[in-house]
Amino acid sequence: MRPHGHGAATGEHRFGLTDRASWWDDPPTRPGRGPNKIGWPIISLAFLLPLLIPATRGLIADPGPLWIRILLGVLVYAYCACYAVFPAVFGKPRRTKLWFGGVMLVLGLLCALITDASPYVLLYATATLAFLFPAAWAVIFNGSALGLLVLVLYLRGDLPDHLTDVITVASVTSAMFFMANLVRVIRRLELANQEIATLAVASERERVARDLHDLLGHSLTTITVKSGLARRVLESSGDIDQAVREIREVEGLTRSALSDVRATVSEYREVSLSAEIAGARAALRAAEIEADLPHAVDNVRGELQSTFGYVLREAVTNVLRHSGAKLVKVRLGRDWLEVEDNGRGAGEVPQGNGLRGLSERLAAVGGTLATRPRPGGGWVVRAEVPEPRPDGSAVTVRAEPAGGLA
Fold first, then answer.
1. Residue closest to 216 by CA, chosen among 294, 325, 371, 321
2. Quick one: which of 13, 107, 150, 284 could link to 79 by a disulfide (CB 3.0–4.6 Å)?
3. What pTM was computed for the model?
4. What average pLDDT does range 243-261 have in this prediction?
5. What three-state secondary structure class fits 341?
């Protein structure tokens, strides 16, 4: 199979309903599909008897030389045998199919032109090739055979007598062609459904992995910070009451994390930006990091609050894990969010799973995620989602916010 673009490694992409390659190649067939190789030869007798009975009677009653009658009989019965066994050729290579179809078409033309049979005899071959060959090859072979039939009948002067028969043969052949292509369309739709199911499973896995990373990364980091704070309190001052408060918060966080994991797997969880701000304030306070956070989120577009909640959660988690910062500032606007710290960030930092997941979330709503070093040390994470215009396109977002809560 020839590759057809980057996504054609799986082969199914080559068999789209509008793909030109589908005219020259049939979609793959699952094992066990197609005509019944055992039952069809029996069923085909019902279609072949109207040809075999009068042909056999004519050959017996013909007063001509015996060897000619024997050759004609071999010709007719070989043609009928091709019709009876053609399902066995379905799974063969293309070259075998082309040879089989060419031989059967030649036998059909000889039966129609040499014997006294009607042009209807050619239908056995043209109908078979419509199902056996891809659409383009069927048009080439059947079109050539019908054209040759018309030419020979015209040269012999028999075309006026058989014109209606030829038109009928062409019409039935066209009907078989469209029926065969309808079968191919159904097979392509089955392949498309299989691919959609595969992509849906992969997408769901990515969603669960991304959500679990966002949830557990933040929760476990906060639990680690608070557990460390409780340990330091006990080691330094022995303040049992404060240590118990921290441990109780750790217990609450573990219960909340477990609940969030269950809800995320069930796809029932909704992240709230205001709740994430409150959680960020508690986590930063436990880590002894000064937090300059907004007190309201009303100026943020409603449809972006869940997405920005994930951005804030991941950015604060990264600050707690890696930055060593003493101050974190969060600013909000109608369609942007910016998290800034004064930690050790410098230079280009490769995106991990968290930032990559945030980029995917923002891309899904038409936004972007940008990270850059902060002058004087630290790191800035900025999420922007341009507001769509009435025509459906996005407006350009300013590089720097005009305002916001700090």
1. 321
2. 107
3. 0.46
4. 76
5. strand
